[in-house]
Each structure stands twice: as C-alpha cells, then as structure tokens.
User: Fold Peptide ABC transporter ATP-binding protein from Paenibacillus elgii.
Amino acid sequence: MYTTRIEVNLLAPLLEVKNLKTHFKTEGGVVASVNGVSFTVSKGETLAIVGESGCGKSVTSLSIMGLVAPPGKVVGGEILLEGENLLGKSHKEMRKLRGNKLSMIFQEPMTSLNPVFTIGNQLGEVFRNHQNADKKQARAKSIAMLESVGIPRADKVVDYFPHQLSGGMRQRVMIAMALACNPALLIADEPTTALDVTIQAQILELLKGLSKDRDTGVVLITHDLGVVAEMADRVVVMYAGEVVEEADVFELFARPRHPYTKGLLGSLPKLDEQREELDSIYGSVPNPLNMPGGCAFHPRCPVATEHCKSNVPMLEPVAAGHWARCFYSKE
Assistant:
C-alpha cells in the first residue's frame, strides 16, 4: 500500500495549488481566510485537508471550484488543473468545467438538492448540459449512475423527490451527480458529517472504491481524523488560513511535528489506554481581524517561546515528504 502511494506521487500532479490567497472584505477589515496555501494532488490520490472550523479549509475548496462569493475574492496565487490555471477562466468557462472536469460533494445533501425536482431531473441535467444527452438518454444514464453508487431500485428512485430518500441515499445521489461525467478531480467537503456512523462507513467505502476504479483525484475536507486515517494518502493540516504541516498519512499519525497536529491527535481516544480525560488544545482559534504577531499558533502552543511571539515560521521540510511550520519541528 505504501509503495502505491510513492508511485502516485511520482506522477505529474493533477492539481497544483500555489500560494493561494482568498480574502474577505468586511466592515472590520480584510479577513485572510486563505493566506498562501500550496499543495498538489495526483490522479488516483486522496489528499485530506484537516483543521478546526474557521481554519480556511472549506474556503480553499470553494476557491478551487470558483465558487467564492462576494465579498470574498481570490487575490493571489495559482490553481492549476492538468496544467490550466483556473483563476484565468471566465465564469462561463468555469461553469463548463464544474460537473465535468471537477466536481464537489457538499456537506448537507438536503440543501444541495432542489426539493421541487425529481432525482432523475436533477441528475439528468448533468448529462444534458455536459454530454448533450436527450431526455431518454439522460434518464438511462441517471439510472445507471444511481446503480453504480449502490442505490437499490434505481429505476424507481429516479422519479423520487429528495424528501422521499434517507440522508444516506441523498448523499449517494450527490456522489452520483458529482461523478456523472467522470471528473478528474473530486472535492468532498465533510461528506459524512450529517450521517450516522454505519452510513458514514458505507459512504467512505463507496468514495474509496469509485476513486480507485476511476483514477479520480480527491480532495477530502474534514475535521474527523478517523475519516482521514481511513481515506487519505496524504494530509494537509491547516490553521488560521495557513498550512502548518503536510505529510503522508502514516508519517503524520506516527510522527507529527507541529504542536497543533500533536494536539489534534492527542485529543483522540485510544483503544490501548484508559484515560479519565482526553487531551485538549488550550484556547480557541484567533479572531481573523486580530491575528497574533509571530506564529499564529503561539498563544495556544505548549512549547512556544518569546522567539515565536515576534517571528513567523516558514513551512520547511523536516523529513522526506514531510513539512512543518514550526521553529522547533526538527527537534
């Protein structure tokens, strides 16, 4: 399995995000939600982006999709999909790419599906818009896609409305819509948050299988490290709009280097030990309009020194394929 991951990363990147900056203008000032984020994703690879709420991971995914709405704006960097810079595309060009070359699964399927249209109508629209399918062809393709994501009686479900399906079935419909045109890149933003544990496992297994079968690159946005361990090949840890650590999933879980990553992993219960209380990270995420000087994490960091309060650490290699943004990550 590890050999496969090395081979994946030797391929030319499917997606390259370079120094991405996405800011929001507010009455209180400019919020740098994404502040110089860089990473790559190869074909058939799953990259997990993790961090607390407000760290910038969802804004990163919306930036890639070209769906950042005013007052938000991508103000710097590059987003290269198969070598093409998406930030240079017009709205019309991005509409053609979305659902075709790149797709996204959102957190809550009930808010993403239109309640007044049938499943077949909404799924068929993908085939009509991107593959010029007629009504009959779109219906047949929709039924086939519903079957491919494990929905029973797909020929009946295609005529259902979203409220007639369970949360798990609605999420399968969203996956079917996202993969309908066999996109090169799939972004999954907390795809199992609203689902119970049993359905979560089914959805994750489904995503893993479809990604492998179709050689699709996946960006998985999540705060759940259990999902990361199950799904990811590599992991990017974000804090306050920046990447603070990146590594292979095995390396990250075995040898985390950034204090924030160590805190996240330390908060997880372990089967081989008994503790009355789990570890926690002191404090809370800083106000984006009043960021601390120096290292953004220093007010919460158990190893911070005076040096950390006035100097900004860079994201630097600490081992082969492993980077961390901390002055003391090599120690």
Summary: The first strand starts at residue 15 and ends at 26. The chain has 13 helices and twelve strands. Residues 117 and 296 are 46 Å apart (CA to CA).
